[in-house]
Every structure is written in structure tokens, then in C-alpha cells.
Amino acid sequence: MTSSLGYAILGLLARGPLTGYDLAQRLRTPVGYFWTARHSQIYTELARLEKDRLVRHAVVPGPGPRDNKRYTVTARGRRSLRDWVVTPPASAPPKNELLLRVYSVWLADPRQAREMLVAEQAKHLDTLGAFEQIAARNADAEGHPDEPSFGDLATVQAGVGYERFTIAWLGWLLDHLPE
Amino acid sequence: MTSSLGYAILGLLARGPLTGYDLAQRLRTPVGYFWTARHSQIYTELARLEKDRLVRHAVVPGPGPRDNKRYTVTARGRRSLRDWVVTPPASAPPKNELLLRVYSVWLADPRQAREMLVAEQAKHLDTLGAFEQIAARNADAEGHPDEPSFGDLATVQAGVGYERFTIAWLGWLLDHLPE
DNA sequence: CGGTCCATGTAAGATGTTACATGATTGG
DNA sequence: CCAATCATGTAACATCTTACATGGACCG
């Protein structure tokens, strides 16, 4: 019954207790590189997870006007996550706006198309640089597949590979467009 | 105001007239590799596009019980698509269930994790084979960036690259998990 | 004293999925 | 004769985004 977002939250809480606000930040970086959600969705999902007894919270006084809710995974939640991790992922419907544009690039003005694709390549080069730095910082997790940082390293390795392939593909495309 | 799905439909109709049913098929294959939609969404989107005068339909008697609606792009629709193709894509929130699982793979049973990842790699190897065949069939579009088949070739090249990178990354992962 | 960060929530709307509804033709 | 294909549409539901709402602490 738990949604993917629910497992994203459980995956973060399995590494340590967090508030809804903390979760929202991590669902921008670093989990945001492969799964995102807004705070509005996170708070409602936390309520659902708590109803199912997969997480629980303790109220701690915070600096702001309202108390913080510090969430932790329950044993049940950890078991549920552990089981889900090894289930085959449902192939989600791919959505790629860049590919959708390239599918119709044949009828575009080549000069404008090149401009857009060059800008896109620059963005991916930036992201690649950022990912490579993160990968370097996490390199020592390589021999420890039973520690949380291995999850960080493995996913950022995917990011590095993805950016490299995208940059190369955009290079191929630019080589084949006139001007 | 037009949605990405709207441009997916325009991109298909720019290659020739199609019915809603035809569109639904192509939004499974080949456009389905980077953008999908169900027929229920397509019919409502076609109505919206027609209201905005980006497409128009002619009723032709079909083999089934109800008449077919043969849709074509209007000049306005073609212009709209042409402009959209070269606009920078809004970076969509990434959603990758496999990466979400790998982020928590450190707490899974390594044997079960390996099993899932090997199965995943096999799926991607299959897809790669299929993409490579399509790429070979479309190879002659390489020198014709102003023809529709160039869009087919460019997008399938992206598919080939993506599958190769994913297979390599899964190989790296399997090399680092015990057993 | 104005903006950003911390911190949690609700509500309205857009988007997308699943299910319901109909019915003729073709191939095994 | 049964299943799949052709062919179009509506309705209910789930999911996700954007906007609304509140308010203290801290920095410049």
C-alpha cells in the first residue's frame, strides 16, 4: 500500500531521525536527483506512514513558533523498506521533454536548435562536475556495501554515468545538425 | 498553454494524419520510449488542441461501429510545435524507482539484492538489443536532419546510450555487492 | 526593519490512471 | 465461438503542483 514517496521517506529515516522539514530538504538534495516531492506532499505522506505504524514521531521544542516533530522508523517500517528494496521496480512511464523535442527537431530552425542543445549540454556539464565531486567525497564507501554511504555512492555513480552519456549524445546530435 | 502531451501529439501529426487510436498506439511505441499517455488522456487532449485550432479532424467511415476521426495539424499547430522544439526544456522532477531502491540497498539482503539487479540488467540488455536493431534500420537518416526519420534516429540513439550506461552501472554495482 | 531560514499544515487545481461503456470485424 | 483488434468516449480516483496561511529567530 505504501507509495514510492513513502519508501523514499523511509529510506531517509532509516539513516537517522528527521523532521518533515528536513525530509523536504533532502528530497531536493541529494534524493532529489532521482526522486522529488514538495513539503505539502511530504506532510500528508508522513501522516499516512504513521497511521500504518511505519514511522512514529516525538515532539521536541524547536526554535520557531511551532514544535518540531522528530520522525523515526519503526521496526515494522524498516522491515517494509528492506523487503521493498529487492522487489523488481515497476517500469514507470518515461517522460523526457528533451527527447520529445528532439523527436521533432527535423522541422525546427537548425540555428535555434543548436543554440538550445548547446545550452542543454552546458547544463549537463555543470551537473557532471558537481556529481564527480560528490562521488570523489564518497569514494571510500566502495568497500562497505552494508553502510548507508554505499547507497549515496552507488546513486551518484549513476548520476555521473547518466550525465556523461547525455553529454556524449548531445555531442553526436550537434555533429549531425547543419551550421 | 499547450501541455507536453499536446506537443507529443503535434509531433506525431506533423508526420502525417492519424486517428486518436493511432496516436495511442504510437504513444506506446515508439514515442512511448520517452513519453507516454493512455487513450483516455489522448482523446481529451485532442479536443483541447482542436479548440485551440492547432489540429482539425475529418470524419471518415471506419471498419468498426463508429466513424474514425482523422486528425491533421493546422498551419498554426505546426508553427506552435516548431517554436516549442527550440525552447529550453523545463527540468522535470526525475523519478527513478531503481535508484530509489539502490539508495537503501545497504540494508537489504545482498543475495536478494543481487537477484533483483541481475534481472534488471537482463531486461536492459533485451531493450538494448531492440534499440540497436531500430538504430540500424534508421541509420540512413544520419545525413538528413530535416527529415522526420532523423528524429527517430536521434531518439533511438539516446535509447542505445542510456541502456548501455545503465547496464554498465548495474555491472559496477554487482561487482561491489558481496556473494 | 526587511529578507531568509525554520517549521507545519490546508485547499484548489492540474495531470494522469483505472475502470466503465459500447460494438463491429477478423483470425484461429 | 472466443479472443483480439479497431475505435471512441466518460467518470471516478489517485497523485502532484501551486497557492494560501502562520509566525518566531537571526542576519545585515
Describe the model.
2 copies of one chain form a homodimer. The first copy, chain A, is mainly alpha-helical and 179 residues long. Chain A folds into 2 domains: 4-85, Arc Repressor Mutant, subunit A (Orthogonal Bundle), CATH 1.10.10; 97-176. Helix content of chain A is 59%, strand content 7%. Chain A has 7 helices and 2 strands, in the order αααββαααα. In chain A, α2 crosses α3 and α6 (110-137) runs antiparallel to α7. The mean pLDDT of chain A is 95. Chains A and B meet through α1, α4, α5, α6 and α7 of A and α1, α4, α5, α6 and α7 of B. Chain A binds a DNA duplex (28 and 28 nucleotides) through α2 and α3.
What's the helix and strand layout?
Two copies of one chain form a homodimer.
Chain A: H1 4-13, H2 20-26, H3 39-51, E1 55-60, E2 68-73, H4 75-85, H5 97-103, H6 110-137, H7 148-176
Antiparallel strand pairs in A: 1-2
Helix pairs in contact in A: 2-3, 6-7
Chain A binds a DNA duplex (28 and 28 nucleotides) through α2 and α3.
What oligomeric assembly is this protein in? Answer: homodimer
Q: How many H/I helices of chain A?
A: 7
pLDDT < 50 stretches of chain A:
none
CATH topology of the largest domain in chain A: Arc Repressor Mutant, subunit A
Second-tier CATH architecture of the largest domain in chain A:
Orthogonal Bundle
Distance between the termini of chain A: 53 Å
SSE order of chain A, one letter for each helix or strand? HHHEEHHHH
What's the CATH H-level homologous superfamily of the largest domain in chain A?
A: Winged helix-like DNA-binding domain superfamily/Winged helix DNA-binding domain
Taking Cα atoms only, what radius of gyration of chain A do you get, to the nearest Å?
20 Å
| CATH C-level of the largest domain in chain A | Mainly Alpha
Can you list the strand order of the major beta sheet of chain A?
Answer: 1-2
The most extensive interface, with participating residues per chain, is: A-B, 74 and 74 residues
Residues in β-strands, percent of chain A: 5-15%
Tally of extended strands of chain A? Answer: 2
Mean pLDDT of chain A: 95
Global structural class of chain A: mainly alpha
